[in-house]
Amino acid sequence: MLNNRRLRMTNYKLPLALLVALAVSLVLAATVFAQDGLPTDDEVNKIAKDLYCPVCESTPLDVCPTEACRQWRELIRQQLAEGKSEEEIKQYFVTQYGARVLSEPPNRLASYLVPALAFLAGAFLLFRGFRMWIKPVAVEPASPTEEAASVIPPDDYIRRMEEELKKRK
Amino acid sequence: MTETTNIETHRKGVPLWAQVIIWAVLAGLLIIVALGLNRAQQGTIQPGQAVDDFTLPLFSGYEYQGASEVKLSDFRGKVVVINFWASWCKPCEQEAAELQRAWEQYEPSGEVIFLGVDYVDTEPEARVYLKKFGITFPNGPDLATRISQYFRIKGVPETYFIDRNGVLKYVQVGPFTSLSQIQNIIDPLLAE
To answer: Are B128 and B87 in contact (CB under 8 A)?
Structure first.
């Protein structure tokens, strides 16, 4: 009689255990499914590497360990999950925190034109400076008389010296 | 002697207009560098200076009398307390409760307004912070960090006290440690 009861108990326990195991599996599967819906760290970091938090200057967002940057990365993940594009997310960060969060300046004409013009102006100045420094220009006088006029200053002493030399010849 | 070959060396001069441009550009660059250095040395905006007007958008639920954004000039005639904070800032947590207590004390008089400026923060985390400390005074994000750049804050928390005439009177760098510390700054401004 006792053996029969034990057998019956065992018969109940087995399906119950299977039911619990099934329920746990379903919960785990649901959790995994939900996690699959979220963007991965790689997807987040693909955008984060082009952003810089103003609090932690010179440290890209994808590797910055501070709490502020962790929050920013979570915000990127959230926006990716909402279906926003990379450009939309970057624009959101620019609107919220300013253009200085971008690793590259915004694609405006002045952003590139001013440095390019400054570089060209500097190169021109250096070129002119070196050219004048290294290669002085030799100028021959146009005629001997002009040469004499330009080279010999009208000095009375020199004139007398030349006269003396002529006499000795 | 007169036949001595003479080679005169002389240099082609840079045209006058080019010289003027070069010197003007150099002077301009020097002025920019000097202004930048001067600005960097100044630190935060100094007491005694009139504060320029700015607009602060407010978080939903933290509006001021139903307005979703406020201007500093809206509060002319009142003492204005501008507190820069962030949810990731641990020292900000030290003063959050004291600021709220001060706000609850001064709000009924209508002579003092507190404005929370959320610096480089994310809105979900900011809301958690505001809820955690039961903050009720108007709060909003520092969009594009314009306000913090104007005040040249060095970090958070920082609090600026502006008198009824829009002149900055006191700057608190770092957290407040007590309610009386806040009262000791506001009360003389109210008495002026």
So the answer is: yes
DSSP class of residue A59? S
Question: Cβ distance A103 to A93 under 8 Å?
Answer: no
Q: Which residue ranges of chain A lie beneath pLDDT 70? A: 1-12, 14-15, 23-36, 135-154
Question: The complex's ipTM?
Answer: 0.72
pTM over 0.80: no
The number of beta carbons lying within 10 Å of the beta carbon of residue A39 is 15
pLDDT at residue A10 in the model: 55
**Nearest Cβ partner of B8 from A98, A128, A139?**
A139
Q: Where are the beta strands (DSSP E) in chain A?
A: 137-139
Distance from CA of B191 to the nearest CA of A (A): 38
Which segments within A8-164 are labelled E, that is strand?
A: 137-139
Please tell me which residue of chain A has the smallest CA distance to B9: A138
